[in-house]
């Protein structure tokens, strides 16, 4: 299964990473690679919890990320 993850630099150092398809599924790491490995583990644990609770597993979906420009008046 493929899941979209969002990495953001943490002001105190390292990276925070989240999975928008699994609300509340977050992790962190000192490097991008470490953060990605940690979110994989968090995703697996979340999926195992859902399966144990007999809740439906989420369908992976495409998440689009873009930027917009705004001007302050």
Automatic annotation (TrEMBL):
InterPro entries attached to this UniProt entry: HicB-like, TA_system_antitoxin, TTHA1013/TTHA0281-like
Domain HicB-like antitoxin of toxin-antitoxin system: 3-63
Coiled-coil stretches: none
Pfam family, one: HicB_lk_antitox
UniProt xrefs under Gene3D superfamilies: 3.30.160.250
Protein name: Type II toxin-antitoxin system HicB family antitoxin
């Amino acid at each position: 299964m493929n899941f979209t993850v969002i990495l953001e630099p943490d002001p105190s150092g390292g990276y925070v990473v989240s999975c928008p398809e699994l609300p509340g599924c977050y992790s962190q790491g000192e490097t991008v690679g470490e953060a990605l490995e940690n979110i994989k583990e968090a995703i697996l644990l979340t999926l195992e919890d859902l399966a144990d609770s007999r809740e439906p597993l989420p369908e992976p979906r495409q998440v689009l990320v873009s930027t917009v420009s705004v001007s302050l008046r």
